[in-house]
Amino acid sequence: MPRVFVALGANLANPKAQLDKAVSALSTLAQGDSLQVSPYYCSAPMSDVAQPDYLNAVASFDTQLAPLALLDALQAIENTQGRVRKARWGPRTLDLDLLLYGDEFINEPRLTVPHYGMKARSFVLVPLAAIAPDLILPCKTPLSHLINENMLVELPLLGIDH
Ligand code: ROI
Fold it and tell me: Tens digits of per-residue pLDDT, 64-75?
């Protein structure tokens, strides 16, 4: 069964509550008790559009869902939590991005995995490393090679238990 990694991001409508609710929805997709969730990190928006800071995290779990079925399930969770697709770089109540699906490379009209931006985004890499420090990406790059000191100081960890 593949292990999958999902990035969570929210910057509207009580981001901490959005992430908590999303984590509980993700637990229903996870096989057994395989769900792992990183701490929540506060991050400055990566955008030219002025908007509030984000709360970001990464979750990982084993799932029997095929990639597109998993994408549907993630989009259903986003929609349930009031996600409205507006500006591409605008604020959002909840974003769930499928980062990795086992070691697979997927190129479908609706889904590109590994996620195209993940190797350059500290708000993805730092939470990912918190739960999978020894991860090797499908392109064979060790995750640890992508993390640098600047990223670690840039992202204040919100010491939130979940
Ligand atoms: N910026 C941050 N810091 N965190 C996000 O989750 C995030 N998500 C987005 C864009 C608008 C690219 N910027 C972000 O979709």
Answer: 999 999 999 999
Q: Would you list the domain boundaries of the chain? A: 3-154
CA of 18 to the centre of ligand 1 (A): 15
Q: Is the pTM of this model over 0.85?
A: yes
Residue to probe by mutation, ligand 1, list 95, 118, 155, 158, most atoms within 8 Å of CB: 95
Q: In this structure, are residues 2 and 102 in contact, taking their beta carbons and an 8 Å threshold?
A: yes
Verify whether ligand 1 is closer than 6 Å to residue 40 (CB atom): no
CB atoms near residue 68 (< 10 Å):
12
Domain range 3-154, CATH class = alpha beta
